[in-house]
Design a protein that fits this description.
The protein has 535 residues and is an alpha/beta fold. The chain has 22 helices and 17 strands. A 6-stranded mixed sheet has the order 3-2-4-5-6-7. The protein starts with a helix and ends with a helix.
Length: 535
């Protein structure tokens, strides 16, 4: 049987052979990314988990994606997912929870954990898409990891191997002893047998000199076309009030440049383009030197984004000189008033200076990221997105050379564990009006590319991001019974519109409160109170 086209386009930097590992394995694990292959292979968290599992002696590890022709089976061998001991779901986006259930349906695995027999695979979920708020997926998972799993993977594997001698309940008990592992049947006050039992808190890795993520498999069929991805930092000092990443991965930590270069050395000539990733990449103290070293090796350097107020930072011409032609910055809001309210302080002159530097350095495309529907937003803030984009594009022009600006707009979604978790998202009709208003203004701008975001997917994300265990019922109805979106929420005893747009009472308990320390909740509430006074 010839290998699938995915395999023919892949380069495994680990040299890991699943077929050989399977013969001597004590444990079989499939890492599942509940989205397409092209998206999953560009996800550094997914690749990091695969690296850790595939590097563990005695573990047979494969991958699976939610893709036509691959539903319910592994990529490497085509094994049905129900034949693995453990299915580890890597979830980065709330909307992919729908694909988690579709994967279970395609696999013939009972969705509710309480209904699964002992012979079924043990279902484990992790990733920022579930650990900021694990409750919507809690009815389906045997365990959910909260936080950064780098140090915990060996402990999780050991707990499973030890616990399975006594059956599924024994595995759950063993898993509950691992720091950061949330077992809904034991911990959840909503569905668990041990209601009120202390739940684990998020787990963080203090030292990133050894435990950090880089690409393990390079694939020309990914969206980034085989780019070698390297984690530069975790966390962020800015703590923008809407941002789940800065909240979930704080405090800010950097990967030493020497450690990154060691991984690059191991990748060799396969790493033709190196993508440096992180929420706070530009704050890395050794980033400029690292980029210069990579460029000197004749490798192209790409950064996930630079600070909008970077100005004439030395990094910009270095990245452009390596051959990269696109630069990404995120002003987030069109006016200084709204940027200050959300915690994104940015002087427009510094933004303009960044655009001029990017143009003079040789970039041909500038990507700008904004949000609509933020708390406290006014009509003039919506109009300012177009006017600020126009002003930036004028600074990005260079006579005789093609330059374009790509405008990306995301509707605001209140994320669990952030200071804006108590605010509701915009109502559907109001958001549609704002998007139409913005589209009308952007159409007047030359050399600006803009595609409006999908409203339905935004609303689903907003309903899931602050959902409870009842939201899991709605997901089950949506997928397994193919019920319509609003009816599925109604049958679960919920109003879809209220789940999306209703603000939460500041004093009311939230579905995810029980998995976070009181100190963390107090810090988030303090930032919320400061923002509420300005809205």
């Amino acid at each position: 049987m010839s290998p699938p086209p995915y395999e023919r386009a892949e380069l495994n930097l680990l040299g890991y052979d699943p077929a050989r590992a399977r013969k001597r394995a004590r444990l079989s694990v499939c890492v599942v990314y509940p989205n397409s292959y092209a998206v999953g292979m560009d996800n550094l968290g997914f690749q990091g988990v695969y690296r850790m599992l595939a590097s563990t002696p005695g573990v047979h590890c494969e991958r699976a994606f939610f893709e036509r022709g691959l539903e319910g089976t592994s990529l490497e061998s085509g094994l049905p997912l129900r034949q693995f001991d453990v299915l580890a779901f890597s979830v980065s986006y709330e909307n992919d929870l729908v694909n988690v259930l579709k994967t279970l349906r395609a696999s013939g695995i009972a969705p509710y954990a309480a209904d699964r027999p002992g012979a079924s695979p043990f279902l484990l979920a992790g990733g920022v898409g579930v650990f900021t708020n694990p409750e919507p997926v809690s009815p389906f998972m045997d365990a959910i990891f909260l936080g950064e799993a780098d140090e915990a993977v060996p402990e999780i594997l050991e707990a499973y191997l030890e616990g399975r001698k006594g059956g599924r309940q024994s595995v759950e008990n063993a898993m509950a002893q691992v720091g950061g592992v949330y077992v809904p049947s034991l911990h959840s006050p909503f569905i668990g047998r041990g209601a009120g039992a202390p739940a684990p808190q998020r787990r963080h890795v203090e030292d990133l000199s050894r435990l950090f993520c880089t690409s393990v498999i390079l694939s020309t069929r990914s969206h980034l076309g085989g780019m070698f991805l390297a984690e530069v930092a975790r966390g962020c000092t800015k703590r923008c009030r809407f941002c789940a990443v800065s909240s979930a991965y704080s405090p800010l930590r950097f990967v030493p440049a020497s450690s990154l270069l060691e991984r690059l050395d191991a990748a060799g000539s396969a790493a033709r383009t190196v993508g440096l990733l992180g929420a706070c990449v530009a704050d890395h103290p050794g980033l400029t030197g690292l980029a210069r070293t990579i460029a000197a090796r004749k490798q192209r350097v790409s950064v996930s984004s630079v600070r909008a107020d970077a100005g004439r930072a030395e990094l910009i011409p270095i990245v452009a000189g390596s051959g990269t032609r696109t630069l990404t910055i995120a002003p987030e809001a069109g006016t200084a008033r709204l940027r200050n309210l959300i915690g994104k302080e940015l002087a427009e002159e510094r933004l303009f200076e960044t655009a001029r530097c990017a143009s003079e350095s040789g970039f041909t495309t500038l990507k700008l990221y904004f949000m609509l529907g933020l708390p406290g937003e006014r009509a003039e803030d919506v109009d300012a997105v177009a006017s600020l984009t126009h002003a930036v594009s004028k600074r990005f022009e260079m006579r005789g050379k093609f330059r374009s600006v790509t405008l990306s707009v995301s509707p605001f979604v209140p994320k669990a564990s952030t200071p804006f978790q108590w605010f509701g998202a915009e109502r559907e009709e109001a958001m549609r009006l704002k998007l139409r208003r913005l589209s009308t203004e952007v159409r007047k701008l030359k050399a600006v590319r803009y595609t409006p975001p999908g409203v339905r997917s935004w609303m689903l994300e907003a309903a899931l991001s602050r959902g409870s265990w009842k939201t899991g019922r709605a997901l089950h109805s949506l997928v397994f019974e193919e019920t319509g979106l609003r009816k599925a929420w109604q049958e679960a005893g919920l109003s879809f519109e209220q789940e999306v747009s209703a603000p939460a009472a500041p004093t009311a308990p939230l579905p995810w409160d029980h998995v976070y320390a009181e100190a963390a909740r107090a810090r988030v509430r303090s930032l919320y109170e400061k923002a509420r006074g300005k809205v």
